[in-house]
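debug: dumping io for the single-chain case to check the tokenizer round-trip. Nothing else runs in this session.
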Amino acid sequence: MAIIVNMPRLSDTMEEGTVASWLKKVGDKIEEGDILAEIETDKATMEFESFNEGTLLHIGVQEGETTMVDELLAIIGDEGEDISALLNPTAAVEETTPEQTEAPVEAAATVVEPSTASIPEGVIVVTMPRLSDTMEEGTVASWLKHVGDVIEEGDILAEIETDKATMEFESFNEGTLLYIGLQEGDSAKVDDLLAIIGPAGTDVSAVAANFSTSTVVEAAPTDTPKADAPVIKETPKAAAAPVAVPNTTGRLHISPLARKMADEKGIALNQLVGSGENGRIIKRDVENFTPIAAGSAGTAKFVPTGQEDFEEIKNSQMRKTIAKRLGESKFSAPHYYLNVEFDMDNAMAFRAQYNTVPDTKISFNDIIVKACALALRLHPQVNSQWFADRMKLNNHVHVGVAVAVEDGLVVPVVRFANEQSLPQIGAAVRDFAGRARTKKLTPQEMDGSTFTVSNLGMFGIESFTSIINQPNSAILSVGAIVQKPVVKNGQIVVGNTIKLTLACDHRTVDGATGAQFLQTLKGFIENPVTMLV
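debug: decoded output
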């Protein structure tokens, strides 16, 4: 009997998986324990073995494709077995008759709310347009038309401030501006009432009073609007190519937005030719302006030759999970930061002497991890974790060490770091880093940290802040060791210092608590021999 194999949950935080590679193909014999595929989770790429035997009858997710946990991954069964019912479980459901499906569609197309159904002939409601892909609301920066003005198709009605820029909004209809729904400086959601255009003298007070975005009905354009027609919501359409129009008024007509853009680009206004109403200079005239040689001066015409180019990279499971978890941490935990600078002269001498021991090599990062572990045992509040209903004070110390990989960042955990020697910590971190870059870490090796250390000093970064790796209460950011003048015993001498930044969750770690932890850490780092006592 055929068995459906679903996308497994290979880590506690996994919500979806990507098939990195199939190690079996359709038609292959499967034994229990065979590796079916390599699955990329939010933490690592892991082998997925079969718990069933039979023939691989169907592959539901191709290599490189992604699906949610518990969705169809493959089907295993007897060779030649019919699995059509498993692939199309709804096939046996009775099909709806054409009469049943057509009736609701027809009804939906003719439903019009009473509040907007009866409007004067030829009246068009203009709503707040969506002028950018992320725009949710707009602000009227200025009206370029007033109630009573005659509107031609292509006239600039208003300048709308979006989330990205201030843009000119032109009319796609003609008539008289009968009503303005927003004053200059007022804001409204996309599709809210902006203005009403129609025949001169038409009373539209009822239309404005009863307007609702939930009752606006899209209608196909017709040559002659009919009475009792639904409100037509204005939709953008392709604008005609701009045409230069002579200025017949004897003075410079330019929109505020165009003037601002010309000033920013250093374009003299008398060089611009307007394509708007009565030769008015608008945004597109500035955008399309090209300096041209004058007389015999021979100034070359400026023609842009660059070409925009980009590459789209599909987000990996690790990258998506990092984005989700760091976003949750940054916007749920009230972060604050404590900055310190430690003297590293003794630590440098200590490391140099320690590494003279045969087959021993420790790094400054190993020293910092060990110092943090010892300080955390003395300050359990910093070694704590926040949960919705409780705070957990950890007496054990598991230090997460951030490791950069191609897809982002992983945090393997040095367990009971306070009980390990410096060489043991160094060996563990090097092993984790090597396997992290080949995606060979197990989920268990990345779970359970009580504190995190992130070190960018090897990249020359002197100081930075990090986002807390929840549910931890703190993370330490480690910069580069810098040689500079320092004051010792009243004398300016050459010294070596390092800057550290402790990010704390204010729900669990108060400022004084974080400061006391850093004082203890300072004692260990500036006098590392005390860590061996």
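debug: round-trip ok. Residues 92-117, 214-242, 293-300 have pLDDT under 50 and may be disordered.
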